Amino acid sequence: MKEENKISVVINTYNAEKHLQQVIDAVKGFDEILICDMESADSTLAIAQKNGCKIVTFPKGEHRIVEPARQFAIERAKYPWVLVVDADEIVTPSLHDYLYAKIKDGNCPEGIAIPRKNYFMGRMMHSSYPDYILRFLKKDKSYWPPVIHTSPEIQGTIERIPKSRMDLAFEHLANDSVADIIRKNNTYSDYELPRRRNKKYGAGALLYRPAFRFFKSYILKKGFLDGIPGFIHAILDATYQFTIVAKLLEERNSK
Predict the structure, then answer these.
(1) In the 8-state DSSP scheme, what is residue 90?
(2) How do residues 78-104 score in pLDDT, each as one tens digit?
(3) What residues pair up with 8 in beta bridges, in sequence order?
(4) In the chain, N or C: fewer CB atoms in 10 Å?
C-alpha cells in the first residue's frame, strides 16, 4: 500500500486500563497504533506495550483535560491520515473499510466527522445521536487547539458521515452513571468559564438556557423515545447549562 493511503490511529490515554484492550483490538487493522499517554499510574502502558503500540508521553502537569495532548499526538503519527480515538471508543470494521475506501478514491476531504453512539442506563440515547466528532483528518492540514471541547481546525473540506450509517458510528463504552455525569458536569463547567466570560448572561439565562437544553434533548432530539433514562438525561443536560450560568454569575457578583 502506498504511504499516502495509510492511516495512523492515535489513542489519548490517562489511567485507561478499563477499556483499552477492547479499543486496541478494534483498530488492529490500521497501519499504526500510537498511544499518547498522560503519565498513567495504572496498567495502561503495560497493555499498550503488550500490543506492540507506539507510545509517546505527554506530561500531565497541570493539565486536567485531554485537548492539550491532541496536537502533540497527531504530530507524532507516522502516516498522513490520522484517526483520533478516545480510550473508551470502539471503531467498527465498517468504519475501517469506509475510511480506507475514502482515501483511495483520490477525492477524500481533509476532515471527516464521525457519528457516535452514547449510552446511559444501558441504552443508546437518541438525544445524544449522532453526536458528530471530527476525528479523521489529514495530518498536515489540521491543528487541534488546547481548549476543552474544541474540534480540530481543518484547512480544506470537511464532510459528515450520514447519520443513517449507524454501522459507521463510534461505539462509546463509557455508559456513565448519574453520579458520573453530575461529577463531570461540575468539573467541565469550571473549564467552560474562561471561554464564556464574554457572554452577557443575566438572571434570565438561569431559566431559558436550561429550558431550551431540556427541550432540545427531550423533544427535538427525541429523548422521549428512551423512556425514563431519556427524561433523566435531558434533566442532566439542562442542569449542566444551569451550572455554567450560575458559576458565571457567581464569579461576576464576587468582583
Answers:
(1) E
(2) 999 999 999 999 999 999 999 999 999
(3) 32, 82
(4) C
- Identify which of 61, 85, 64, 63 has the alpha carbon closest to the alpha carbon of residue 73: 85
Element (H, E) at 70: helix 67-75
Q: Within a 13 Å sphere around the CA of 9, how many CA atoms are in the beta-carbon half? A: 25
Decide: 90 and 111 in contact? Cβ < 8 Å: no
**Consecutive 10-residue averages of pLDDT for the chain (255 residues):** 90 96 98 96 97 94 81 96 97 97 91 96 92 96 88 96 96 91 90 81 93 96 94 96 93 82
Residues 6+ apart with CB under 8 A from 42: 15, 16, 17
Mapped to the 3 state alphabet, what secondary structure does 207-218 carry?
HHHHHHHHHHHH
- Give the predicted TM-score (pTM) of the model: 0.86
pLDDT over 90, % of the chain: 80
For the record, the C-alpha cell of 46 comes out as 503495560
Grid cell listed for 188? 467541565
Residues 6 or more apart whose CB falls under 8 angstroms from that of 252 comprise: none
